């Protein structure tokens, strides 16, 4: 594992260089050069970047920032977008296209942008993802505000804070019992009410798995048994690094598919259930994501205006 050879001094130097590059690129735009909020756009949620005012807006491909890796996932563009949100013109930094552990990157690499965000002045991380529903009542297009997580790889040793502690960011033993801030969750739901949005938005526990396979049926039952409401392959490493860096966190899952947790058909069944029973078609999933994403954009705009 690469963290064995990881040097906090070298890593800090790389982060400082990345932050200095971003500051230089934004030097001509003082209103947006110190973003207060970082938004990580998950799959199907890249449209969040559209709520930024059109001027001033600066797009920086990851390849222009030393230390940033490029996303290898089709449809994840890989750029930072800097701009303003809401009538209070809150300066934000949007990450369109994220880096996943399953792509083969180390946690130091996948979470590099979060620590760099801290260095350029970000105070709050808003993180989004596409996730599978584990709670049997969840349907594609539902949303879930994350109020807790289960870090499956972390519990067995693949943890983003493993290795020497970055003392200049946070403590060796970071508590996570309050990782998903109550005040931010309340603010989000208050804005949902004010906007009259009726979509199902639950609060629940996100279970992080390494991927890249989707869960087997038995794994889904296991995740449900241990308390997971939704499951996905991202978010938790970024949240842990954000909390270690002292950032406030609001996190949201878009449920794109409802997991198939029933036992598979038996070889002894005379009339086995079709294997895809209950599975949404790809078009249905995309449609649900698109509509839900519009509601997310509206609520985020009003929420961020208060940050
Ligand atoms: N499992 C894991 N990650 C996911 C899923 C899922 O069902 N859906 C979207 N991301």
TrEMBL record:
The keyword Glycoprotein does not apply. Pathway: Purine metabolism; purine nucleoside salvage. Keywords: Glycosyltransferase, Transferase. Residues 36-304 form the Nucleoside phosphorylase domain. It holds the Pfam family PNP_UDP_1. The keyword Cell membrane does not apply. Its EC number is 2.4.2.1. It is an enzyme of class 2 (transferase). Belongs to the PNP/MTAP phosphorylase family. The purine nucleoside phosphorylases catalyze the phosphorolytic breakdown of the N-glycosidic bond in the beta-(deoxy)ribonucleoside molecules, with the formation of the corresponding free purine bases and pentose-1-phosphate. This is Purine nucleoside phosphorylase. It comes from [Candida] anglica. The gene is PNP1.
